[in-house]
Structures are given as structure tokens and as C-alpha cells.
Write a structure and sequence with these properties.
alpha/beta, Aspartate Aminotransferase, domain 2, seven-stranded mixed beta sheet, four-stranded mixed beta sheet, globular
Length: 407
């Protein structure tokens, strides 16, 4: 495969083939072409809330494939209408409209265009450690300069003239409300929106506090800016509520824009950008578009995912995962200093000091021991198990982590 595609990923020798068989629901385990079985704590980086091969999800997709598989967005389809309605019913925005698309970065781009168009302003405030995607606009919001070179430079950055694109994104430390206030004052009248992840995923699973999110809501209100919440990794029930915003803030306030992907399609490419109706009205015909967004097969996959999550009570099961892991860790601690971070089924285990990068080799060691994981920044092992995962799966994750550290 490495000889066939761009070398944009460090690929492993494992060739995943199928789920471990399950007749009633999806599986948390995958089997490779050599017949080896793995607990999948990656799940396509959070894209498999139902596990792999849930027969109800497969049936929904198969049924729609025998009907209409593609339609232009100038036409309506029954799956698109049903999915859009189900999605809006679950959002923490009382009066909203949705733009359906295919990927997380595409939903981020839609949010950027909407914020700029709706406000007539030209600057977006983002945060250090943030990750919002790989396309140029999403990349500008992403903090890691290594990802942005040589494509994008942001406000107040050196070498902007040498970059392909210059984006009007200002950046402050995550959790620092005063720094955000200072930037809003510095660019008074120009801030279109404040965009952030309620739980920073790629950074190593760092949740925002309720006070910080509510402080940003008040700050945006006072400056006439929009508050945008990136739920690409944290949304669709992974934290125990449909959005991490609700898990952290409850019903104390609403954001203006929310966008999500990953778990939304249960493994099928599905994404969405949701905004208050008054704001969404700024995007009139011709201002934005997509070919595959709202595809009837994708919408059937998304609707099946939402239905199964609700029918099986999967959000409450996801919510329990951190507590279970903490119980396991208390009785069987790791041989190095560690910290469990996250909410529900969005978990990170920080190992030692970040600069020591103790976790770096575990992305290779743990698969050799039968558990697939991702490692963030060399310091955090991330777990994005299916929502139904419980003590059995979390015990295997933890014992394998400990074994890999002792190897």
C-alpha cells in the first residue's frame, strides 16, 4: 500500500479485515488478514461509536443502496429530511438549521465561511493546542505550526509573507479567558467568532471548564461575535450527552454554531455544521455547496447511528467509561506517573512529563499485544472505544498499557 498512496501516514504492517463476529451489535474487536484479533481503541479515530459491523447499521445502508445512492442537493430525499430533523432535535440550539457534509474539516470550513459571512467581520479567535482539520481554513485554526508550514500563516506570526496563504486567525492559550478578552479588545469590531473544541482531542484530551465556556459565551455576546464549538471528536454522545457542550455546560447557555463528524455516521463519512437559524440565513444560494454532503446513503447511515445510540442507551454507557477506568487504575496502577483525562468514552492517559514522551513507543507496542491505540504528542495514550464498551474492554486496554510500559 505504501507504494500506491502519498506518504502522508506512517502506516503499520497490520492489514485490518473484518470485525470479530457479532450477531446482535457491533464489535469492539477487529481481525486482520492474518487472523489476529485486536481490541480497537482507535475506531477510525472516534468514528465507530457502534463498534464494527452492527447488523442494524449495515441493513440501513444496504437498503438505501438498493434505492437512490446519489442525489444533487437541489433535490430532496427522504433519508436526508429524516436525518436532518433527527439531528436538529438533538442539538443544544433551540432554533437551528443544518448544512450536511462529509468530513470534519469540511464542516469546519463551513463554520468559518458562515461566521465571516454572517458577521461581515474578518478575524477568528482560536486556541493553542487546537486541532480543527487539514484544509487551509481549518489548518489556520489548528495550533501546531508544523502542520501549517508552508501553507498558512496567521496574525502576528513571523514569516507570513513566505506562506502560501495568510489567514486572519488570532490565537491564545486554551482556558485563558483574560487572554481571549485582551485579543477581543485589540481587534475590537473585527472578531467574527471564537472557535474551540470543548475537549481538545489531538492535543491529548483536555476538557474545557464550564466557567471558561460560559466566559467565552459572555465575551462573544459583549463583542458581537459568534461562539463556535467543534464537536468533531467529542460529539454524537461520546461524553454522555449528544454534545460535550451539554456535558460541560448543561443548559446554562447555547453556542451559535456547532459542527461534528466522526461518530455521526457510525463509520460512514458523515458531517454537519449546525447554526442558529438567523445566522444560517446568511448562506443564500451560491454561497456554499457540496456534492456528497447529505448523500442519501450517508444520511441513512447517520440516521441508523442516532437511532441505535438511543435505542441501546449508549450515551449512558459511554458516560460510565471514565469512572470504570479510574476504578481499574486505582487497583492496578501503572509503573510510571500517570493522569487519566477526559469525559465519558473520550479518554487519554497522560504518562510522565510531556517532554519525556514516555507514550511515544506505545503506538507500536500495544498493537503487538493485541490493542490498537493512538498516541497524542508522545505523552498521552488515547482511547476512543465504542460507546457500549465496559469493564471487559477497559480492563484489557489498561492491562495491555501496563504490559507495554513494562516491556
Amino acid at each position: 500500500m505504501d507504494a500506491l498512496r502519498w506518504p502522508t501516514y506512517k502506516t503499520r504492517s497490520i492489514v485490518l479485515d473484518r470485525p470479530l463476529e457479532s450477531t446482535t451489535r457491533g464489535s469492539a474487536y477487529v481481525v486482520d488478514t492474518e487472523g489476529r484479533t485486536y481490541l480497537d481503541c482507535v475506531g477510525g479515530i472516534g468514528c465507530a461509536p457502534l463498534g464494527h459491523g452492527d447488523p442494524r447499521w449495515v441493513e440501513a445502508i444496504s437498503t438505501q443502496l438498493s434505492k437512490v445512492a446519489a442525489a444533487a442537493n437541489s433535490y430532496q430525499t427522504a433519508p436526508q429530511r429524516a436525518f436532518a430533523a433527527a439531528l436538529l432535535e438533538r442539538m443544544p440550539i433551540a432554533d437551528a438549521r443544518v448544512f450536511l457534509c462529509s468530513t470534519g474539516t469540511e464542516s469546519t470550513e463551513a463554520a468559518i465561511k458562515l461566521a465571516v459571512k454572517a458577521t461581515g467581520r474578518d478575524i477568528i479567535l482560536s486556541f493553542e493546542r487546537a486541532f480543527h482539520g487539514r484544509s487551509l481554513g481549518a489548518l489556520a485554526l489548528t495550533a501546531n505550526p508544523a502542520y501549517r508550514q508552508p501553507y498558512v500563516r496567521c496574525l502576528e506570526e513571523d514569516g507570513a509573507a513566505d506562506a502560501f496563504a495568510q489567514m486572519k486567525v488570532a490565537r491564545v492559550p486554551f482556558g485563558d479567558l483574560e487572554a481571549a478578552r485582551e485579543l477581543c479588545e485589540r481587534y475590537r469590531g473585527r472578531i467574527a467568532a471564537v472557535f474551540l473544541e470543548p475537549i481538545q482531542g489531538e492535543a491529548g484530551i483536555f476538557p474545557a471548564t464550564k466557567e471558561f465556556l460560559l466566559g467565552l459565551r459572555a465575551l462573544c455576546d459583549s463583542h458581537g461575535a459568534l461562539l463556535g464549538i467543534d464537536e468533531i471528536q467529542s460529539g454524537c454522545g461520546r461524553t454522555g450527552h449528544f454534545t460535550a457542550w451539554e456535558t460541560i455546560v448543561g443548559d446554562a447557555a447555547e453556542p451559535d454554531i456547532i459542527w461534528m463528524a466522526k461518530a455521526l455516521g457510525g463509520g460512514f463519512p458523515v458531517a454537519a455544521c449546525i447554526a442558529r437559524t438567523q445566522i444560517a440565513q446568511a448562506m443564500q444560494p451560491g454561497t456554499h455547496g457540496t456534492t456528497f454532503g447529505g448523500n442519501p446513503v450517508a444520511c441513512a447511515a447517520g440516521l441508523a447511528t442516532l437511532t441505535i445510540i438511543e435505542q441501546d442507551g449508549l450515551m449512558s454507557k459511554a458516560a460510565a467509561q471514565r469512572g470504570i477506568l479510574e476504578e481499574i487504575a486505582a487497583t492496578d496502577p501503572l509503573p510510571v506517573p500517570f493522569e487519566i483525562r477526559g469525559v465519558g468514552a473520550m479518554l487519554g492517559v497522560g504518562l510522565g512529563a510531556p517532554e519525556d514522551k514516555i507514550a511515544a513507543p506505545l503506538g507500536s507496542r500495544m498493537p503487538e499485544l493485541g490493542v490498537l491505540v493512538t498516541v497524542c504528542g508522545g505523552h498521552t495514550v488515547r482511547s476512543l472505544l465504542p460507546f457500549f464498551a465496559g469493564r471487559e474492554e477497559l480492563t484489557k486496554f489498561w492491562s495491555t498499557l501496563k504490559q507495554a510500559l513494562e516491556a
